[in-house]
Structure formats: C-alpha cells, structure tokens
C-alpha cells in the first residue's frame, strides 16, 4: 500500500485530494500543519471516546490484516474505540465532538 501525507490547512484542498486518492491501494493522511503531519505520520493509534469527545491514543500493534489490527497496548478494557469509514476517522482531531449510536454501543 502506498502512503501519502498531505499537509494543507485548506479543507477544500484536503477534500479534493481525498476524492482523487480514494483507493484501497493508497493510504492518504491529511494534516493542517507540519507538526500535526509529523505526529500523524509517525504514530500508530486509535481514537477513543471520552466525555463525548475523541482522544487520540497511541497503540503498539501486533497482528495486522487489511481491516483489523491487534492493539497490544494503549487501549484499556471498556474503552470505546471509534470505528467508521476510513476517510471520516482519518480526519478526526483530538477534542472533536462525537455521538455514540446505540447500535455501535452494543459492539
């Protein structure tokens, strides 16, 4: 899989690149600043829900496949891990407000 990091603070530019590179062969990561880009490029992690907002949590990964990976450390039992379409989850930022659907809470 090819990886592409786009750093641009214009949401229209980010959106255009996401549409252009919408492919399972390309992992597009977007960031609004160089600092955010470096953090996202170097850190494996997940978003968890805390008090109605997301928090990025670094994880150490184990076994990985195309759709799932094993988190060896970083998440705790009972954490609500954010799941959803890649293009949505990839663009979350720490502190973004989220709503947990009743369907997702049962998983």
Explained architecture:
- This protein has 107 residues and is α+β, with helices and mostly antiparallel strands.
- It has 2 domains: 1-42, no CATH class; 45-83 and 93-107, no CATH class.
- 25% of the residues lie in helices and 32% in strands.
- The chain is built from 4 helices and 6 strands, in the order βαβαββββαα.
- The chain has helices spanning 11-20, 34-42, 86-89, 102-105, and strands at 2-7, 26-31, 45-50, 53-58, 60-64, 69-73.
- The protein has a two-stranded parallel sheet. It has a two-stranded antiparallel sheet with strand order 3-4.
- It is globular and about 35 Å long.
- The mean pLDDT is 81.
Detail the topology: elements first, then pairings.
Layout: E1 2-7, H1 11-20, E2 26-31, H2 34-42, E3 45-50, E4 53-58, E5 60-64, E6 69-73, H3 86-89, H4 102-105
Parallel strand pairs: 1-2
Antiparallel strand pairs: 3-4, 5-6
Low-confidence stretches: none
Strand content: 25-35%
Oligomer: single chain
Number of domains: 2
Helical stretch tally: 4
Instruction: Tell me the span between the first and last alpha carbons.
Output: 29 Å
Features:
107 residues; alpha+beta; 2 domains; two-stranded parallel sheet; two-stranded antiparallel sheet; 4 helices; 6 strands
In short:
It is built from 4 helices and 6 strands, in the order βαβαββββαα. By secondary structure, it is α+β, with helices and mostly antiparallel strands. The protein has a two-stranded parallel sheet. A two-stranded antiparallel ribbon has the order 3-4.
């Amino acid at each position: 899989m090819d990886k592409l990091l786009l750093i641009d603070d214009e949401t229209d530019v980010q959106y255009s690149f996401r549409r252009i590179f919408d492919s399972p062969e390309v992992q597009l990561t977007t960031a609004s600043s160089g600092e955010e880009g470096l953090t996202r490029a170097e850190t494996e992690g997940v978003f968890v829900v805390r008090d109605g907002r997301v928090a990025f949590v670094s994880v150490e990964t184990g076994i990985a496949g195309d759709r799932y990976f094993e988190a060896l450390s970083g998440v705790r039992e009972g954490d609500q891990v954010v799941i959803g379409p890649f293009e949505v989850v990839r663009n979350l930022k720490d502190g973004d407000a989220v709503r947990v659907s009743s369907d997702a809470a049962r998983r």
